[in-house]
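Collaborator request, handled under Task 6.
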Amino acid sequence: MTAGARRIAFTSRALHHVDLERAAVAALEARDFRRAFALADRRCRILPHPGARAHLLRAEALFRLDLKEAAVASVAKALELEPDDLAAARRMMAWGDGLAQIEAARSVARRDDDPDSVRSALLLLEQSGQDSCARIDFLDEEVKGWVTWRGADDPHLSLAQADQSSTVQLPADPRHRFALNGRRAASFRLMRPASAASQRLQIAQAGRVIASVQLPANRAPDRRDAPQRPLRAESAETPPLTIIIPVYRDLAATRACIESALTAVACTLGATIVAVDDASPEPDIKRLLGELASEQRIRLLTNAHNLGFVGAVNRALAETDTGDVVLLNSDTTVPKHALQRLRSAVQSTPRVGTATPLSNNGEYTSFPVPNRSNPLPSPHELELLDELAGTANSGIAIDIPNGIGFCLYITRECLDAVHELSDDFYRGYLEDVDFCLRAAEAGFRNVCIPSVFVGHEGSRSFLGEKRSLVLRNLRVLEHRYRRYATECAAFLLADPLRDCRAALELKLLSNQQRAASPHVILCGSAVGREIAIRRCRQLAAEDKRGLIVHFRAEGRRQLAAIFAPDGGAPQSIALDVATTEGREALLRFLTDLRLRSLEISEPNRIPGACLAQLTQHFAYELLITDTRLAECAAIGSGLHPDWTGLVEGARGVIAIGEEGAAFSVSVLGLQVVRPSDPLVRPARHPAASGPARLGLLALRGSAAEFRFVRALSDQIANAHADAEIIVLGTTVDDLKLMQRTNVMVTGEIVVDDVATLIEGHGITKLVLDIGEPAFGHPLVDALLATGLPAAATEWLPTPPGRSRKTDLKLQPGFDADETVAAVLDWVVEDAQLHPDRRSSRHRREVGARLP
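Structure tokens returned to the collaborator:
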């Protein structure tokens, strides 16, 4: 750490993320790459959520530390956040390999203004087999760019819209800056005709398409003379319902979608399907649509030119004058009664403009995990989910910020007021959000109908391009609707759909109870939760399913949150066990599950009345995760009297890992079962050069951990030892500790971070016991697997041949002061720093513990 870097004081909590980025830049300029990594890495772990810049700073530091693989991973994260970030693309092109490198080269070639960078990208693309490339920039008035190719034939540029098309030839320019090494090139610039519809620009050469881009409309539609659609008339007749399905690619998904929609239409009075062939390049899709149209099972609209999702939908809307409509993606699967019940729910809910069902992949409306692309259920499972949703959430409509376009029901009144999808959005993302926000401005509600479930594969049309397209269109949306981001954040925080998901989960689990019989693990802290998740992975390795009941306080409520760590249902059930009704509900839930076993960890964190009720009704085992069952943390102290009855009533005691088993035997005097555990492969790290850098694992964020770090920091500073402390985790006051010159706090970490953190920080030793031990925690085992010298409590003597002289074996029952003193001696002795400062008592104690 440089002297300049040591003087940085992190005092502003509000601007801490800014201070970190600035300090990381300064450290890079000073060539203090470890410090730069530490600062940038912390920035990537704290709120507000980091952008591409923070990950690129981290990547630059890692690359300078010769940690190329980790650097490339950081660049990949930056590109995930900002796919159009040129700095990230350049680094991926220079450092990466494989498909990621090629995609970066395409991005540089199409968007970079530096000729040398573009030439490097074109060379890389040619080496990968791509001998043509084009860049297209467009404004409302003009289109310009360049194209490179190989071969004698000159390319053609065509500009097409709904009613006309024009084509120009692009002759090769031998003096073009990209006409090198036998490659031909040409630049172009042409005026765009005014159009209220989108336009398709295509560059083709020798029968192959080099580039194809959809250009948004450059003139607002003129609605002054547009005929007014009649208002919905009150009638006893059921108004028609039109299902609009734009089709472009993916025969299998399209066939499955239309077949399911046909079945649903047959169960929905007055419903018809309008499919739009948006100039599909797949002959099999054209054949399928033609056959269905000739059999009069669908109405088919065929576009001469590809208009994109917006253009295809708007054409269908223009030809649908009456009744409500449903916009349906061609990668959806519709249960047979979904459309009928969706329409019925909308008609019984006042002021609805748009309605969206639940789905496995529906952003806000996703199930079981919201805002995630959950796996697509089988057709049989979809029918069951839709049926159960109908009984679990009948008559419910939940307001949401906007509808989701995979299956968007739009009422005729809303269409008459809002008209059509906007053509301001590029390539078919977020135009549905814009429509819904315009509907809200017109006084209509956007709702989720949680009594209907529709399957959605998702992201089949644009695949890897989706993130870039979404971000590009999101900038347009945020400029137009200033409050939208705030409303979305408030909705996600409140999660008003949680109860609906939980109701569906309860129905689903009740329906599956014969096949359920899971293993249930109880826990009561974030640390216990991680250990319980690891226990569930052990069960999964034995082809058994585990569920977790996590008890946590929320104001006056004591919630029992029930979830499956494999991502399946349940995810949203939370019962208030502070009340009698909540405890009875939890008991009924577990009884209906016909659970195979109940494992109790952290009994001190489980509400007493609930613990007593569960242990009376179920046979159970104890899962040892900490030292709270002991009278005190000393060899042979035995059980604490408060837990004698709980232990005596258990069928057995389970411990994950050697430390938990050793504690149970030596302190509690209990025999334990150690379940088989997937092998943790050692990830040995060479010793870093330079001063000692202690990696202190902080799992609980407790006051005891904070005091330990502060005391050790003081002792190291007083001993003039040139050592640094890297706190692996979070504390009760990170900034307070980081104001010390010898302390860095990483922020939250996970197992996959361990290798990069060890190498990036240059950690030479580990301290694993700075508070209450966490037996079986994945991070403890991952750190031990690094092979670095470690300080940890020795609950049983290590067998001969397995102990290492570099480790520090702490005696059970050590208080914080004794542990600090032992760790300080261990650091100073190993570094051969100031041996005269060590007391004789410390030398005797450390000598007794170092084999």
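The cover message to the collaborator said: "Residues 625 and 775 are 5 Å apart (CA to CA). The first helix runs from residue 3 to 6. Please let us know whether this matches your experimental observations."
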